[in-house]
Amino acid sequence: MTRGTTNPNRLRRMDRWIAAVHGAELRRAADPVAVDLGYGAAPWTAVELLGRLRTAAPRVRVVGVEIEPARVAAARPYERDGLTFRHGGFEVPVPGRPVLIRAANVLRQYHEGEVAAVWERLCARLAPATTHSRGGLLVEGTCDEIGRRHVWVALGPEGPRTVTFATRLGSLHRPSDLAERLPKVLIHRNVPGEPVHAFLRDFDRAWAAAAPYAAYGARQRWIRAVRDLSADWPVTDGPGRWRQGEVTVRWAALAPRT
Q1: pLDDT digits (tens, 9 = 90+) for 207-257
Q2: Residue 83: φ, ψ to 5°
Q3: Whose CA, among 47, 61, 226, 237, lies 20 to 30 Å from 19?
Q4: Contact (Cβ atoms closer than 8 angstroms) between residue 218 and residue 169
Q5: Which UniProt keywords apply (predicted)?
Q6: Taking a C-beta distance cutoff of 8 angstroms, is the pair 46, 15 a contact?
Q7: Which residues are registered as beta bridge partners of 61?
Q8: What pTM was computed for the model?
C-alpha cells in the first residue's frame, strides 16, 4: 500500500499528455478502458482522468484500482457513468485488456530491481498490438505533491517506448531540477556514466545557452533549449508539446546501462 497522498490536479500534465498522444488509440478501441492504478487515499485522480480523457475519447471508461479496501469503499460514492472503483493491485482486476494503465507515484517505494517485473506484468495486461493499432499504453512515473514537476515512462505491450519530462516552466531554475522526480528505474542512475545523467547535463547546457530567450519568457527559452538538445538526443515530439513545458525522448537513449 502506498502512502496515498493525493491532491486535485496533481496529475494534470500526465493526463493531458495521454489525451494528446494516446487519444486516437482510445477512440479506435471497441471498449476503451483506462485504469488508474493506485489512485491513493482519495479518488480525485481517477475522477480527473475520466474528464480529461473524454475530451479526446468520449466513450472511454475509467476504473480506479487500489490495494487498500477502505480506500475503495471511500471512493464508491464518487462512481458515475464511466467511472468505477475496484480492489486490487498489479493483476489489474478488470475484464479484458485495458487500452491504458496509468501508475503514478506507485513504484517510488519499490526497489529498482523490482521495476522490470512489475512493468512486464502490467504490459501483459494491455490491449495487444494489431495491424491497425500499437496496442495499449502503460504510463508509469513520479511527480511532486502539486504536479509542477513530473517524469514518466510510456510503455506498450512490447516494452518501454519513451521518457517524458514535464514541468511548470515558471518554477524551473534549470532542467536538471527534474532529476528529483525521475521514476524509480532511473532515479538511482543519475550519476556520471549513465545516459540519463548525460541527458540532464546536456539539457542544462542547452538551457544556459538559451538564456537570451528568457527575455521573451520561460516558454521561449525552453523551446529553444529543447530544439538545440534535439540535435544530439532523439526527441520524439515537437514545438506543440514543448510549449506545454514538455519534452519526450526515446527510451533507448536513456535506458540504464547494465
Answers
A1: 999 999 999 999 999 999 999 999 999 999 999 999 999 999 999 999 999
A2: -135, 120
A3: 226
A4: yes
A5: Methyltransferase, Transferase
A6: no
A7: 33
A8: 0.96
